[in-house]
Predict the 3D structure of the following.
Amino acid sequence: MTRRKVLSQTIDADAAGVLDRSVSAAPHTSLPLVVLRAASGNAFEVTVEQLATAIRLGVFTDGEQLPPERELAERLGVSRNTLREAIAALRDSGLVTTRRGRGGGTVITYAGSEPGTGNPHVRTGAALTDALDFRRVVEPGAAALAATRALSADQRAWLLESAKAARQAPDNAAHRLADSRLHLAVATLSGSPMLIEAVTRAQSALHELLSAIPVLPPNIAHSNDQHDAVVAAILGGDAEQARATMEEHCDATAALLRGLLG
């Protein structure tokens, strides 16, 4: 039996045990709490960017309702009028819809996009290298730091559930979203707001790059195995192994993107 299969089975067993002892894993709404931050500079444009990025990375999922307007405006540090204008832009882009009346609100209508259908004119050359180098610095660091934290049962269950969601995603679009959520969960568990912001930027660039290439099933299988190895290292409290396995994961994706995008 390969080491990766052993890791996968260990994770499945750990997940079952932790989830049985916990009513539920840490809620996915914890991601908006850490990913969204007070806007600076051009409030309207930055608010649109933050919310659209959060939706495209799966921080908010299809069918989920955005937090109440006052709460979200406070979180983003903008006026409610600016927030309404930003939501209108998201609505025009097909990312959300707004329901009126009692029990109404703004609901996510984005379920992911099929990889390979995005803009083919993405970063290449030095810009591509810079994005991949940036990711290789921040994501392994986040994984290593997460491995040093004393994680609660809910946090451990959330990480396990995130890895399982990526492996069991029903289609390519769902896998891309679940993949992003897992990486953001790792960043969240690092406990560093600056790292969370950096990983969000790295994942946003990665999402753009991956949308321009076709899905390759062997790569998805390798990616899921690498996710399992990263999660096992974090849960085992092995910071160096968490860093090394995340570096291996970043390097594999980088090699694929350099090969197909140039």
Remarks:
- The longest strand covers residues 96-99.
